[in-house]
Sequence to fold (165 residues):
Amino acid sequence: MFDIGISQIAVVGVVALIVLGPERLPKVARTAGHLLGRLQRYANDVKADINREIQLDELKRMRSEVTASAREIEDAVRNEYQSAQKSMEGVSESIDAANKEIQQQILAEDFPPDVFSTYGSQAEKPAEKPLENPTRQAGAPLISGSVFATANKKQVTTDSSSPAA
Fold:
């Protein structure tokens, strides 16, 4: 920063000795040293403050980038969740419609045409179809799941154990 050589420092020291004298020179040198130390500490503090501000700005920038990325991810997840929910609603509606259609077919198979006319329905019974479940008899109550299997086993057992007429 400054181009001060040894010879120039010696010249300043000799001039200071002549001007200040040998009695005050040590006190002035000590005071100059303290002032120079304070100046260096102040300069170091300013450098540290500047570095902290720079790091703080970098951290703020990084935080904003991370926040923006988190928002993008959240939006993407929300969109995927909504599309999955819509498709599940569609599947649920299809299953409900299929379930209603199957129930109507089963009811149409279980009741003879005269029952429909008794209740004032104009519907006609569809053509006879072979039963998909051979153990289930026409007109038997509708039972689902494992209870149905148990009921069928009991029915088969009682049918096979009863004497043939």
Summary: The chain has one domain: 8-126. Residues 2 and 80 are 66 Å apart (CA to CA). Helices lie at 6-110, 113-118, 145-161. The radius of gyration is 49 Å.
